[in-house]
Structure formats: C-alpha cells, structure tokens
User: Which sequence fits this backbone?
C-alpha cells in the first residue's frame, strides 16, 4: 500500500477541473476525455507492440507512460488525466482470470455460471496486495505530471462488474447476467455487496496513492429496467459514495470530488443527483438542457458529445461542440467530455479540434 503523503507531490498548476467539480464558478468549462490514454494514439500502439494490455496495467512505469501520452500531446488543451488501468482489475483481484483478446475485448476464461461458482472467488481480498500496482502507478504519475493537471482514479460499478463476471466478456443482451437477478436475487445481492466492499477499499487506496478525483463507471446501467436499476445498481453506487467519503474522513485523507457515470440510465437522472456524487456524467442521448432541469443544478454535469461526431469532419465537430457548450449554460456547472470513451480509430487531430472548440466557446460565453 502506498503511504505517500499528498503533501509530497508537486503543487497543482491547473486546478480548473477540481474547482469545477466542487461546483465553483470557473472561467471556462474544463475538459478531459474518457479513454484519452488509448488506442486512437499512435504512441499508444508503439508501447502496445511489446506488451500485453494487462501487463501494461500491472507495470507502474508503463501505465504512467500511457497516462501521460495525451497530456504530452495536447498540452494545455486537456485539464485532467486519468490513470491507465481497467475496470476489470477488481474481478481479477477477486480471483477470476481475464484476458484482453485482440478483436474480442475482455474475455473471462472461467466466468460465473451459477451461484455455486462464487465459491471460486477470494472472499477476503487483500486489496492493497492484489491491486497495489495501481497505487504505485498513481503515485508515480502524480510525480511525473509535475502538477500540470489533476489525476483521476476510477472503478467499474458493481452491477457492471457483476455482468462481466457472469457474461464472460461483452454482450449485446446481458441475458446471462440479468437472469441471475431473477433466478438468484439473494446471491446477486451477495455478489454485488462483495464487489462494492472491494470497490470502497480500492478507491480509498487510490486517493491515498495520490488520486485527486474519482469516477465510478456503470457502463451497463442502461441495460437494466428502471425497477432493476433501483434494486441492483443504485443501492451499491450510493453505498460506495457514502463509505468512501466516510473512510477518507476517518483516515484524514483529502475529500476528493466523485463522479458517477451510469451510461444509458437517463431514467435515473434524478436519483443520481441525490446519492452523494459531486458530478453526474451524461452520455450523448441525454439533452443537457433536460438534464439541468431534472437535476436542478444541484450537481455538476459532465459530458456529453457523441464520440462518433469526431468522425464527421472539422465543421461538424465545431458546430456540435459549440451547441453542446451553449446547452450546458454559462453558470460554470459543466465539465466537458464525450458521452462515452473516445473510439479507437479516431484521428487525434479531430480530438484536438473538439478540445480547442470547447475551450474557446466556453470561455467566450462566460465573459
């Protein structure tokens, strides 16, 4: 476990993202991009040639190198960084084998088929031991960033991780995972609780290691009905926010802003406003003006241009980005991003146009 004190890190030179996440008035919308350290960058592929995906995740020097790549490339056009890692490191810590297979994505070699398979999971996980490599990467990256921008830590939400653990990888229907909710509701809650417990420990450890913001990715939230979301996802992401804050306070660690991204869960927007997160991230299917009305400006909103617009040419990118910035308003409660992760075949220059446009337009409307 990293015991590095946050006081030993270089001072933060650009705190725009942190101020915005706390709900403070800021001079323009800060911007960062989900998956900004990733496959769309040629420099990423240079590293990936010689190392497997999870080897990179487990090697702090390599994870740091990839985290820094977009910051080095785009300079002041990015206001935040996110540690290079993966949401599936928690299932790995629980004892499941996950491989990243080219052309298929993550593949579990032996997924959970029935509740009996839960006996294969490590029930007393030493999170610091199993995931200490992430902590080391965070601490190293904070130093290498030299205060240029703040650093995000993150996890996958319990429902999303449970779904991966049962489906064995990506799925168009999540039929196996969803069937557990009806066939084995008690065991489903037990599994979700186990994941939540490890998640809390892991997030606190990330802050101890130097993470300055935290994001919870519920990537498959929108695959649940509103009823099932309220029963099988919402209680656990609420619990994570409350327990992380409590644990940070008890350990006298910094109180960091927390972001929830429940992709596709437009129906839960009002609920997500009141469960302890500072920022609610929106996918591209939610109109920003609608989101502001529903949330009553009680939280900061993040997002949310459709990542596919980056394939549409400079004019389309500028037009869509400008419209998005105006829709979020000029009161300062907006962190710009995409509505999901940047896609792997995007031209890095297209992203540059988006970053430049957001910064320019948001500064203009807040004068």
Assistant:
């Amino acid at each position: 476990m990293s015991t590095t004190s946050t006081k030993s890190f270089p001072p933060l030179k650009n705190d725009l993202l942190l101020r915005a996440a706390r709900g403070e008035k800021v001079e323009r919308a800060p911007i960062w991009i989900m998956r900004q350290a990733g496959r769309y960058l040629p420099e990423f592929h240079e590293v990936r040639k010689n190392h497997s995906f999870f080897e990179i995740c487990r090697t702090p020097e390599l994870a740091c190198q990839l985290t820094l790549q977009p910051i080095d490339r785009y300079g002041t056009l990015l206001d935040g960084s996110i540690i290079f890692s993966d949401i599936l490191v928690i299932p790995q810590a629980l004892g499941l084998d996950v491989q990243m297979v080219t052309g298929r994505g993550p593949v579990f070699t032996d997924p959970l088929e029935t509740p009996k398979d839960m006996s294969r999971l490590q029930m007393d996980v030493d999170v610091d031991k199993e995931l200490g490599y992430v902590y080391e990467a965070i601490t190293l990256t904070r130093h290498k960033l030299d205060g240029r921008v703040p650093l995000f830590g993150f996890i996958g939400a319990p429902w999303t991780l449970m779904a991966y653990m049962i489906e064995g990888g990506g799925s168009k229907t999540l039929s196996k995972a969803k069937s557990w909710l009806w066939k084995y509701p008690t065991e489903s809650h037990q599994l979700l609780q186990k994941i939540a417990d490890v998640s809390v420990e892991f997030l606190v450890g990330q802050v101890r290691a130097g993470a300055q913001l935290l994001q919870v990715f519920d990537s498959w939230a929108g695959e649940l009905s509103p009823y099932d979301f309220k029963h099988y996802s919402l209680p656990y992401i609420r619990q994570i926010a409350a327990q992380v804050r409590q644990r940070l306070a008890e350990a006298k660690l910094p109180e960091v802003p927390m972001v929830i991204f429940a992709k596709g869960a437009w129906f839960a927007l009002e609920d997500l406003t009141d469960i302890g997160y500072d920022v609610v991230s929106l996918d591209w299917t939610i109109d920003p003006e609608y989101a502001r009305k529903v949330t009553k400006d009680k939280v900061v909103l993040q997002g949310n241009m459709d990542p596919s617009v980056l394939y549409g040419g400079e004019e389309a990118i500028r037009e869509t980005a400008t419209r998005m910035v105006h829709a979020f308003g000029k009161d300062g409660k907006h962190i710009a991003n995409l509505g999901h992760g940047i896609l792997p075949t995007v031209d890095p220059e297209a992203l540059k146009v988006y970053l430049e446009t957001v910064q320019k337009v948001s500064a203009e409307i807040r004068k």
Remarks:
- The beta strands are 81-82, 98-101, 105-108, 151-156, 213-218, 258-262, 279-281, 300-305, 334-338.
- The longest helix spans residues 185-209.
- The chain has a mean pLDDT of 96.
- Residues 36 and 48 are 15 Å apart (CA to CA).
